[in-house]
Amino acid sequence: MKNKRVIITGGSGAIGLAIAKTVLEKGASVLIVDMNENGLKEAKKQLNSDKLFTFKANVTDEQEVKAYVDYAVEKMGGVDVFYNNAGVEGKVKPLEEYPLEIFDLVIDVNIKGVYYGLRHVFPVMKNNKDGGSIIISSSVAGLMGTPNVLPYVTSKHAVIGMMRSAALEGAPHKIRVNTVNPSPVDNKMMRSLEEGFSPGKGEEAKKGFEQSIPLGRYASHEDVAKLMYFLGSDESSFITGTINPVDGGMTA
């Protein structure tokens, strides 16, 4: 990863920060992108590196996506690794009651935001002699159904199809594309979902989720970041078009 030029969307979230910390320690330059300005300031302070850049952008706005890619090229000279990571969970509601504005938000962030990132990073990576690596954050929800979170499950299935097509288009240019599919991760997103599934009894919901994971616990941010680091690094140079669960055996 040394001297690689890296973009991370959703960069001020727990997983984004864990990836940023890992790749910075390995010698990469990093641009973290998020729409949370305070989160970006906190990340800058926490990571404390002169090789870290930040950019405020909404991934659902294609012009803002183009702007963060242009900024990465301006500041780092190009893009070698793209962690296409920004995502939202939506709400927990039966499909016939699901608020349409939340449905649209989940689709816009989790599908369109990923596509816009591919659309604007691909041409930059095509200019690289050695191509690049793109890692899309999917989920175990992209490999199975879960009731009452239909938009989220739909979006995480969709990006797997997007990844496969992009991997085939990227291969002649040495651009690799893969997904990472975590089980529940011990973070703010899961607190929201636990409360949604069992209002007022989030801790009980957590225990239920943990029982569905053979290794008996949620993933940590570091568990996910280690796999994402590997897929972004030259250690995985012959891996493309793949789905990569980091799920404690949940999908077994």
Automatic annotation (TrEMBL):
User: Entry's InterPro entries?
Assistant: NAD(P)-bd_dom_sf, Sc_DH/Rdtase_CS, SDR_fam
CDD domains named among the record's database cross-references: SDR_c
Q: Keywords, A to Z?
A: Oxidoreductase
Which NCBIfam families does this UniProt record tie to the protein?
A: PRK07231.1
The family annotation for this protein states: Belongs to the short-chain dehydrogenases/reductases (SDR) family.
What is the protein name stated in its UniProt record?
Short-chain dehydrogenase
